[in-house]
Amino acid sequence: MSAQRNTQTVKDFYEALGKGDLDAATALLTDDSVLHVPGRSTNTGTYEGREAVIGFVVKAATLSQGTLRLDVHRVLADDEAAVALATYTATRPGRSVPLENNLAHVITMRDGKIAESWLHSRDQYEVDAFWGE
């Protein structure tokens, strides 16, 4: 039963983000949720706490002037962890090439909520160039 609940939580999280429903997305994170974003750009680092995690998403949406789109292809889960396989796209002013990035979002779940996450991109160099200064 927990695997199904965890799968649904991750799907609901991405659906809420896609709709811009930040309150619903925030409710699916533990209070002490942590997000690890690799790379060497303006949005990399470790985000600690619900507000910081959602702040990361808001910053990406702002930098891309609302063009950020998430497409989840599959969610794999068990009782303790989940992985979302997704593609996200975005454009930015001053960038001649839009970003299309395949992503594995690796998640530790706790009590049906997202507790800790790591984002793993197909091409980190491309991602860094897109989000860089």
Question: What features would you describe in this structure?
Answer:
- This protein has helices spanning 2-19, 22-27, 50-63, 124-131; strands spanning 29-37, 45-48, 69-77, 81-90, 99-110, 113-121.
- It is built from four helices and six strands.
- The chain is α+β, with helices and mostly antiparallel strands and 133 residues long.
- Strands 2-1-6-5-4-3 form a six-stranded mixed β-sheet.
- The mean pLDDT is 95.
- 21% of the residues are buried.
- Strand runs, count: 6
Q: Which percent band covers the strand fraction?
A: 35-45%
Order of helices and strands: HHEEHEEEEH
Helices, by number, come to 4
Low-confidence runs of at least 5 consecutive residues: none
**What about the largest sheet?**
6 strands, mixed
Protein traits:
133 residues, alpha+beta, six-stranded mixed sheet
Topology:
Layout lengths: L1 H18 L2 H6 L1 E9 L7 E4 L1 H14 L5 E9 L3 E10 L8 E12 L2 E9 L2 H8 L2
Parallel strand pairs: 1-6
Antiparallel strand pairs: 1-2, 3-4, 4-5, 5-6
